[in-house]
Specification:
With 296 residues, this protein is mostly helical. The protein is 59% helix and 6% strand.
Amino acid sequence: MEERRQNRQGWECVKSEGPPPFITHRVFRHANGSIQEWLSRKHRKKLVTREIGLVEAVGKLLLRCLWMPHELNWWIGVVFAVGASLFAIASILNLAPDLAAALFLAPSQVNGIYFFGSIPFTTAAYLQLFQAANSGALPDEEQEQPGRRKVFGWKPASAGWLSCALQFAGTILFNINTFDAMLPSLSWFKTDLLVWIPNFGGSILFLASGYLAFIETGHRYWAWQPGNLSWWIVLINLLGCIGFMISALLAISLPAPAATWRETLSVALTLQGAVCFFLGAVLMLPETVREETSQL
């Protein structure tokens, strides 16, 4: 429990919880007796406080949220979906070489699709980091100077900001590894050095980022909240991170010829990860609804 403090506006934190060392849920009480709930993910993304269910999100809200360009969170979801789609397309073409040949795509060109997919990933990850860096002060903190914007910020005590920072760093490594994968005639050693090591490092950062987002939303090291749309988003993204991690482990190059099953499984898990990231990104659209939109 945090030490209670009260600011000039009369707000006092009366309850706090989260998976140590992070605080992800707070309750504030005003001097006039009113209560305000604070949730880390909803605060940094400027979302409505009420929980949105998965059925409501897909069945009632998704079509209403396909065009919300005034919302940064909408752009993050759309750009992530574009990057995930390109990763999925490249993975399908790798798994179906006859299809790639029919489309007159050489292996290096298929790898190029991965590279172009990594650029939206990095763009969306930075937008999310920017969003977290400028999430604003808590109710019991002094408000920050209006109009001041942070490029990256520094909030290592925040699970949400830390998740965004690690994800952004991971996307940079994916930029490197997907670009290097287009280089011709690499030896197994150079492939490991230029392609696999950035892939492995980026996958570790993604996995850490995904788990931090999961505990930020569930307020526990493990939580079961199937009635919460945000929980589904972070769970699906975490499954995507796990897919990328296992794919990277299988993708290491060795002096001996690689087993076909290992290469196939590695690409299949990349596809699974991309599909998960696409679904998580699409579900971010109904998560972005404003309260007036959600009154059904």
